[in-house]
Amino acid sequence: GYNVNAVNQLLGIPALSGVPGLSGAGALGKGGIFSSLAAMAPMLALMGGGYLGNKLGGTPGMLGGGIAGLAGAAALGIGGSAGMLMNTWQMLSFLGPTGATALMAGAGGGLLGFGVGQNYGMLPGAIVGGAAGAGIGAIIASLAGLGPAGWIVGGIVGILGGIFGGLFGGSARRKAADTFVQQQETAVDQIEAQFKSYQVDYPTALTDLEQIRSNAEEQLRKLKDEGKKAYSRTLSPYIDKIEAELKGYEDERERRETLAVAPPQFAEGGYVSGRLAGWRSDGGIQAIVHPGEYVVNPAATARNRAALENMNAGGANVSAGGDVHIHLHTIDGASTMTWLKNGGGDTIAKYARGRRLEGRGF
Fold it and tell me: How many of the other CB atoms lie within 10 Å of CB of 14?
C-alpha cells in the first residue's frame, strides 16, 4: 500500500494524525460538513489545478495542471486526493509500476510545460514542465514505495514538453506577428500614397504614422519575444524609412515654393505662341511689358500679322498714319479697271475698313 505521511516526510511536512490511506478517511474528521468537504477535495484539487494551468498554458496547461493539482493535494494529505491519484495509477498498472508513474508524471508535466512554453517560450515551459513532471513522479513514487525512476522520467518528459511547446508556440506567434506587420506596412504605404497625392499634409502624415507605430508596439508586445522582434527589426525601421522619405519630399516641396519663377518677357518683341500657355487657369499668359512697347490685340494681329512681323524686324511701317500711297503699275485706264474688278478693289476696301476699326482713320 501507500501512505501520505511518507510524502509529507519527503517534503518536510509534519505528519498529521488520521491521515487517510486507501480507506479515504479524512484528517478533517468524520461526519458533518467536514466529511463532505473531504469528499469533495479531489475534485476541487483537479479543478483548481486545471484553472491555474489554463491561465498559464491554455487547454494543454489545464489538463496538466489538473494532474499536478491532484498530486499536490495528495502530498498535503487533503481528503481523498491520494486515493483518487493512486486509483488512477493502478488503472495503468499494465504498464508496470514505473511505467505507470512515468506516464502520469510525464502527462502532467509535459502538458503543463507545453502550454506554458506556447505562451511564454521554451525556457519558462521547460522549467515549469520539468518541475511539475518531477514533482508528480516523486509524489506517486513515494506513495507507491517506488524508486526515483518514475519521477526522473516525468521530469525529463516535462522538460521536453516545455521545449516543444516553446517551439510550437514560438512558430505560431512568429506567424501571427509577421501577418500583423504586413497589415501595418500596408497601412503605412497608404499614408505615403496619400501624402504624395496631396490628400494629407506632412504633419498629418507623421501623426498617422506614429499612431500606427504606437498601436503596433502595444499589440506585438502580446506576442512575446516574437512580437517584440517583429516590431524592433521590421515594422519600426520600415516606419522610420517612410518618414525619412516623406521628409525628403516635404523639403523639396518647400524649396520649390521659394523659387522666384518669372513670367516670360518679350524685350525683343515677337509673336506669343500657345506653347507658353499654362501660367493662368484661363489659358492666358502672364508677361512683362516695358515702357515704349505697344500691345496689339489678337484680332488686329491676325489681320496684320505680316506687317507686324515686318515692323518688328525693322522694316518700313506702312500703316503708322499719314498718307497712304498706293502705287499702281498700269499701262492704261483699261488695265486699272481690270485690276480693280479682279479683286483689287476688294483689297483696298478691306484695308480701309480695318484702319477705321482700329481707330486710325484712312
Answer: 7
